[in-house]
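Onboarding guide, step 5: your first structure request.
Type a short instruction followed by the sequence, for example:

Predict the 3D structure of this protein.
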Amino acid sequence: MTAHLAFKPSLQNGHCIPEILALPEMQEVSDNPVNIGSDPADLRRLCDEAGWKVNLSLVQEGWNDKSRNGRWGATIEALKARARDARRAIGERIAEMQKQGEDSPQAVLVSHAGFLPFFTEDWEDTGCLSGETFNGE
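The system replies with structure tokens like these:
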């Protein structure tokens, strides 16, 4: 929703590849109810009803399972792995755009404050010295 609302003019102006790709790795950290995403079928229905053109092909069943020891849990290991996978996925997407003839491919990332330090590996002003001291509670 945020990406669609914020970038609607750019998505419609013909100057960019008009695609929003939902990348589940970029989801918020905690298991608070507000930070748990919807099931894929519910997301597809919501996007269809709202008229949002969102590529949900990477959002699989279980992407919103925040079990402590699972891939999507709020553990240091899981968050670092997700961040690494997200960086790789975005790099692959940009490489794909280059192969399709984009001279200066660009991607815009919309994510969450709790996850972004893991993605960027930038802990300045987060209250943590590094991801090792993160408290996912």
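Each response can be followed by summary notes, for example: The beta strands are 20-21, 54-55.
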